[in-house]
Amino acid sequence: MSESAVETHCPYCALQCGMGLRRVAGAEPVEVVERAGFPVNLGALCGKGATAAAVLRPGVRLTSPLVRSAGGELRQASWAQALDRIGDALTSTARTHGRDAVGVFGGGGLTNEKAYLLGKFARVVLGTSTIDYNGRFCMSSAAAAGTRAFGVDRGLPFPLADVPRAGCVVLVGGNPAETMPPFVRYLRELRENGGRLIVVDPRRTRTAESADLYLAPRPGTDLALALGLLHLVVADGRTDKRFIAERTTGWEETRAAAMAHWPEHVEAVTGVPLPQLRRAAALFCDATSAMVLTARGPEQHAKGTDTVSAWINLCLATGNAGRPYAGYGCLTGQGNGQGGREHGQKADQLPGYRKLDDPAARAHVAAVWGVDPAALPGPGRSAYELLDALGQEVHSLLVMGSNPAVSAPRSARVADRLRALDFLAVCDVVLSETAALADVVLPVTQWAEETGTLTNLEGRVILRRKAVDPPEGVRSDLEVLHRLARRLGHPDGFPSDPEEVFAELRRASAGGTADYAGISYRRIAAEDGVFWPCPSPGHPGTPRLFLERFGTEDGRARFTPVQHRPAAEEPDAEFPLRLTTGRVLSQYQSGAQTRRVPALNSAAPGPYVELHPQLAERLGVREGEPVAVVSRRGRTVSPARVSGAIRPDTVFMPFHWPGERGANAHTNPALDPVSRMPEFKVCAVRLERA
Ligand code: SF4
């Protein structure tokens, strides 16, 4: 890498690829250069990372606070005016409606420092329990299932470098060839080493094309599929009896639940032919070691937690956990999807992955914060429940690093709820669809303009370094919290320097599940990241969890007996098709950044409806013609993309666009009872020629 380049990381997904940023005299203040030494991506970047400097252009982003005038327009204002307006509004709401009527909504892209300080701000300054974040919509089902099985939720309990050394990998509902292309190297090396790749997805994606075996279940049936595979493993006598006896609990109930799911029934429910089920079970059991990796496909359902538990049960029953090159992992999506769920912006959580309803956890964190434990609020509403309460029980909202008007389920209703608020403040880099509805918008620094830590999908804490000064008029999220806290009577305890915040985070997390006590900026820089838990400066960090014991009280992994159940909304005569949603190569999440990058926007300028040729013929729709998708929640019109890669009973839409083009206009907010994850991945629709 060029000597003058700053070593940092991509602003987008959870792989957190290393990159260099070098100052240049051009339209963008810096250019992206290769950082070959970072082990996760070895210099490789996808198009999103390679073009990331475009979002630093002055014309793309906000550079002044905006305050809504009496006439209803957003007008430029000073920072003092904007912060006074926020402080007054939050105080007035708390006085009139109570503290829980003030809400905070964070994001899985916020640095660890921001997520930590935002959670502290909500509990200590606002005294509200009403805080959650968009990571609830990302990997919360995998997190819940991982916690109940292993006692610890870390996306991957092993480094990515272990993936090519497995004998078999089952990738369920993930398409890294589009969502995180540098990850594909690990799957390619797996196959070069003789390992087998099984891909489970209702669409034959680019990732599925490279698999040894591809299974295409109906959306919403991954739980039945996993149960069917476990049934076959048991029936064939391929369980690992010694591992089950020595390192697990709860097997008998789980075995009985799986044996109730006959393979022929599973074939009928999933649409996966029985010979393919048998071959998958054989490949999994014949391997010297096996992994299951899930992504949003099986997780974003009203039964997402049980679905992930079913795949974990398969790993445990075959002894594929707690040993090298084997186990269950979740491919986290957002840039700080892992760290963002560890340090207190989640409704039920305190820093270090502590629980808000645990008296010992409250006492520890309250001591670090210098407050009475009894003053800390209890657990609050989950993300969708919080958004659904806007304008009713929740009257003012502060949003940081999120665009729920596009990314939340049933997005038109969420936009209505945002409009129904007495007061909305949004901190963002650009005027997102959510910011456009706000009473006050604060322009904040982004990615290359600030320093902070993130935790990638491996549990590796990395350091994003500042490479360029922000434009005049822009402040960091940490400074926003610092200034607001002062205005609201807390002159101390909310530093704006990220390293100072990280030092406090280390103390608050000490002794917790996600223990960062031994991690420092200096160590991260010297070691290409440090894996948590790392309880002391002399501790090496923990790349591989569970080799000796699992994180449960007795050290054993817990089986969870689960049963298949239908989706919250199954097809019927009026809505005979299943809609599933996902991402495309050249856009990221709600598109707030990537839709503003010319190269990405021309590659993926808008949504489309992917449908099978048989379905297209039945409807009389040809490639590129407008087609309406109609659900119980909305109607959108997009061009048809006719493809044999999708099941004839299923249609697909990418979700990166807002309003009448937005796939999330249709998504069903039915919630998982454990994780409170909405059912993004399946709902019933019909198609009409438009
Ligand atoms: Fe960025 Fe993810 Fe692409 Fe890597 S894979 S360059 S982290 S968007």
Please, could you describe this protein's structure?
This protein has a seven-stranded mixed sheet, with helices on one face. The protein has a six-stranded mixed sheet with strand order 24-26-25-30-23-27. Strands 10-9-8-12-13 form a five-stranded parallel sheet. It folds into four domains: 6-56, N-terminal domain of TfIIb (Single Sheet); 66-137 and 337-531, Rossmann fold (3-Layer(aba) Sandwich), CATH 3.40.50.740; 140-331, Dimethylsulfoxide Reductase, domain 2; 577-689, Beta Barrel (Barwin-like endoglucanases), CATH 2.40.40.20. β25 (626-631) and β26 form a beta hairpin. Helix content is 30%, strand content 18%. The longest helix is centred in the first third of the chain and has 19 residues, at 79-97. The mean pLDDT is 96. It is globular. With 690 residues, the chain is an alpha/beta fold. The protein has 23 helices and 30 strands.
Total number of helical segments? 23
- What would CATH call the class of the largest domain? Alpha Beta
Number of domains: 4
| SSE-based structural type | alpha/beta
Strand order of the largest sheet: 5-4-18-17-16-6-7
Stated plainly, the CATH topology of the largest domain is called: Rossmann fold
Mean pLDDT: 96
Shape: globular
Q: Fraction of residues in helices?
A: 25-40%
The fraction of residues in strands falls at 15-25%
| Contiguous uncertain segments of 5+ residues | none
Give the strand tally: 30
Small molecules (ligands, ions, cofactors) in the structure: iron/sulfur cluster
Q: Could you tell me how far the N terminus lies from the C terminus, measured between alpha carbons in angstroms?
A: 52 Å
